[in-house]
Each structure stands twice: as C-alpha cells, then as structure tokens.
C-alpha cells in the first residue's frame, strides 16, 4: 500500500484506524508504547479513542526522568549544596520531588542550578567558570548518553578539571526484559521507542521475540507512525508470527548508530541500577569507567545516597510497569497535579500522568 509511506496525513491516519478496527477475530491484547514521547503523541491525538475494544494501549517505562530513583534526586540535591558548585541539568528534573525537597527548592534557597539543552552546554559553562566545579546531571537512555560520553572525552582532551557527571543513565533492553519476565505484567506487543532504536538498532529487540514470542514494532512519533505500528502488531498477533518490524525506516536501521554506541561504551560500562517502580535491574544502568573516575562526580564528591521510599499513595511505579493507568492513582488530578506534583510522572514532559492530565483537560473530560 503505497499510501502508507506518508506519515503526516490525516486521511492516511483515518484509513489506518479503519484497518485496525477491521481486525476481525483479534483476541483482546495489550500493546505497550515503551517511549514517553509516544505516550504524549497518543494522548495529544486521541489515538486510544480510535482503538477497537480488543486493543488496549498502555504506557511503559520510557520516560527517563520518571524512572530516575528518589535516591538519585537526593544525590542531585546534595551536589547542589556543595560550596561553589554549578549544577547543570535538563529542565524536567527541576521539579521532580526527592525524599525531602526538589532541585527547584534548592535553587530557591540559593543553589546555582542552570538548565541546559545538552551536556555540551554544560561543558561550555565549565570553560567559562574555571574556578568553579560544574556538575552535569546525567539522566537519559541510549539516545542522549553518547553526547555525555563525548563531553567527558572533550573535557579530558582539553584538560578541564572542573567538569564532572553524576551518571543516572539507563539502558532500555534490560528494563524491557525485566518487564516481559514479570508474570504480573501481561503485554502482547511492544511499540518500541523511536529515538532509542535509532541508536541501538532494531536487532536489539530480537531476543525478546525469541524468548517471549512477542511482536516488536519500532514506531516514529507522528499519528500515522503509531497507527501503522499498532496495525502491524495486530496482524502479527493474528498470524501467530511475532517478529521485529520497523515502522520508522526513515530513521531506524537494523544495526543502529554503531559509532555513537562505541563512544558511549568507551566512557560507560553497564552496572546494576535502581528504576523507580521496577526496583534493581541487573546491568541496566551505565556507570563511568574507572579510567575516567576524575569525571565521576559521585566518587569525586562522595555523593552516594541510599534509596528512599516513594511518596505515600503515589502510583508512579505501577504506572511505569503498566499495571495501573494514571487515572487509577488516587492522587491523580486531586492532590497530584502539574502545579504541585507528587510523583515524577506528573512532572516530566514525557510522563504518562502529565500527558493524561493535560490532554484530558484540553478535551474537556473529567479529571
């Protein structure tokens, strides 16, 4: 079908929605959109409302800010309290609550915390402030971590001794493996993340097809991309022939970006990591290699903090595991709203709770 090559066309989206609804004989299935950007697009464009009764779309752990552990937020705040430090961070992290406060609270109290768009911006701040320690808060998946690795390599080459990173980076495949192996979580297909897949490549999902017999389709972020992926998943389920497919071939290849991944693994190595809602997942985090310890802010400034409990009543962990929807949380839209978030899923621009709240409000639905 040649018309499927168009990914920004309302008529094509309507045709795809009609084809999905015509999937006669499809058993009840749950497809997880892994990526937070997919969740936002699905909410914004009302894609859930286009699904037939047999298909449920559920959110996963693809928001890097949302899965960042409370202890990591506390570590970031402790770094902000260091004398003379400059903390550089993505904006989404500012309002995420730690066990007692947030980075925004720390900034209000006088900490020098600056929002940047990349680790390379943080590197420039270090160049401009040679007398102060500049610490970058490294949060993200394989999409952004290579740029952080490049920043560390540049700092080493330039001899910048006032730049370091707190690495809370995470790897997507181990988290998906943990989800799919959990008997409490029933998933029949994965809408795999577009940005991450550009880096790791489609072949990274082959083990899931082999081990769990589950179809995986990589999608872009336009409505047509997502609907196309849902249709491909439904067809695979009906045929009983799961495989890894690419519905985003204008950006994703089988092998991924090997150069970027090579840079990432030059600086980082896999380590066990705590994911909010998923507890500790083996080899799912990225730790700075010992050869680059000088740029490891956790070690340089003794910033390790023990894990803390999530806020009482917050269902972010279950939302990230797709056990609950945001509306299932007793705090959603009541005690927890964007103006005063209790959990990270309401804070982040890619968080499921924030997306559900925003687009339900815009559509006039009840909270």
Please report the first level of CATH classification, the CATH class of the domain at 70-169 and 256-300. Answer: Alpha Beta
> How is the quaternary structure best described?
single chain
Which stretches of 5+ consecutive residues score pLDDT under 50?
A: 363-367
Q: Please tell me how large the radius of gyration is.
A: 21 Å
Strand content: 15-25%
Task: Average the pLDDT over all residues and give the rounded result.
Answer: 92
Q: Specify the CATH homologous superfamily of the domain at 70-169 and 256-300.
A: HypD, alpha/beta domain 2
Q: Major sheet: size, sense and barrel closure? A: 5 strands, parallel
Query: What is the SS-derived class?
Result: alpha/beta
| N to C succession of SSEs | HEHEHEHEHEHEHEHHEHEHEEHHH
Tell me the CATH architecture of the domain at 70-169 and 256-300. 3-Layer(aba) Sandwich
CATH topology of the domain at 70-169 and 256-300: Rossmann fold
Strands of the widest sheet, in order across it, are: 2-1-7-8-9
Number of separate helices: 14
- N→C terminal distance: 40 Å
> How helical, in percent, are the residues?
25-40%
Question: How many runs of DSSP E, i.e. beta strands?
Answer: 11
Shape from CA axes? globular
Overview of the molecule:
By secondary structure, this protein is of the alpha/beta class. It is 36% helix and 17% strand. It has helices at residues 10-21, 36-44, 70-80, 103-108, 119-128, 145-158, 172-180, 194-200, 206-212, 223-239, 258-267, 297-300, 316-320, 352-362, and strands spanning 29-35, 55-62, 86-89, 112-115, 134-138, 163-167, 189-192, 216-219, 244-247, 268-275, 279-288. The strands form 3 sheets. A 5-stranded parallel sheet has the order 2-1-7-8-9. The model is unreliable at 363-367 (pLDDT under 50).
């Amino acid at each position: 079908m040649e018309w499927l090559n168009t990914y920004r066309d309302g008529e094509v989206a309507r045709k795809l929605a009609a084809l999905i609804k015509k999937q006669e004989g499809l058993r009840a299935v749950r497809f997880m959109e892994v990526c937070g950007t997919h969740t936002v697009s699905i909410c914004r464009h009302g894609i859930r409302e286009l699904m037939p009764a047999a298909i449920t779309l559920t959110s996963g752990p693809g928001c890097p800010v949302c899965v960042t552990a409370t202890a990591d937020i506390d570590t970031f705040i402790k770094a902000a309290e260091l004398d003379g430090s400059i903390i550089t961070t993505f904006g989404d992290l500012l309002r995420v609550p730690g066990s007692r406060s947030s980075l925004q609270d720390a900034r209000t109290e006088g900490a020098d915390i600056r929002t940047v768009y990349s680790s390379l911006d943080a590197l420039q701040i270090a160049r401009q402030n040679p007398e102060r320690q500049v610490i970058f808060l490294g949060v993200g998946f394989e999409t952004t971590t290579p740029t952080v690795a490049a920043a560390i390599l540049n700092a080493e080459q330039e001899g910048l001794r006032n730049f370091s990173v707190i690495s809370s980076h995470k790897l997507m495949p181990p988290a998906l493996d943990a989800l799919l192996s959990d008997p409490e979580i029933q998933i029949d297909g994965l809408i795999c993340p577009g940005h991450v897949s550009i880096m790791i490549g489609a072949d990274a999902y082959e083990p899931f097809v082999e081990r769990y017999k589950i179809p995986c389709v990589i999608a872009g972020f336009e409505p047509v991309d997502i609907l196309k992926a849902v249709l491909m998943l439904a067809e695979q389920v009906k045929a009983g022939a799961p495989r890894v497919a690419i519905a985003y071939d204008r950006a994703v290849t089988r092998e991924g970006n090997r150069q970027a991944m090579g840079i990432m693994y030059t600086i980082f190595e896999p380590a066990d990591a705590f994911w909010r809602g998923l507890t500790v997942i083996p080899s799912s985090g990225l730790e700075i290699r010992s050869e680059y310890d000088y740029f490891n802010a956790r070690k340089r400034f003794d910033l390790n903090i023990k894990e803390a409990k999530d806020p009482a009543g917050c269902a972010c962990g279950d939302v990230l595991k797709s056990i609950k929807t945001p509306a299932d949380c007793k705090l959603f839209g009541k005690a927890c709203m964007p103006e005063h978030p209790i959990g990270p899923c309401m804070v982040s621009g890619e968080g499921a709770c924030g997306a559900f709240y925003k687009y339900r409000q815009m559509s006039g639905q009840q909270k």
